[in-house]
Design goal:
Layout lengths: L1 H28 L7 H13 L4 H8 L3 H14 L2 E6 L2 E9 L1 H23 L3 H17 L5
Organism: Kutzneria kofuensis
Pfam families: MarR (PF01047)
GO molecular function: DNA binding; DNA-binding transcription factor activity
Length: 146
Amino acid sequence: MAMSTTTATVDETTRLYLAVGRLSRILRRSGSPGLGQGSISALATLAYKGPMRLGDLAGREGVAPPTLSRIIAALVESGYVMREADPQDGRASLVRATPQGEQVIAGVRSERLHELHNRLERLTEEQRTALAAALPALEALVSEDI
């Protein structure tokens, strides 16, 4: 009896992993303005969280500082990010999204939400209700408090 419960849990875990991964890839492909996912993620963090030091941004993004430095250099070159002096420490600098960078992120978000909305519309009412009921559990699953 315990074996089938474990097998069912593993199967559900695998199905959830595959579904979330596929949905994430589908949405990442939507609205990407020629930027890689790392660039879009870093730019979105700056647009939503405000200016920050490169080390703090690297920590938030979960990437090595040299990798993030390359991403930021390309975003600065594109006009999506700017560097400025840190008012708390004149030796350090902050990076911030420019208005053009914020506009790019708003467009990406809009395209991705549109894609998700279209996919949700293809579901039955019962399936949409089940997803809505699962939202608190999904939000708990991705909470940093776990």
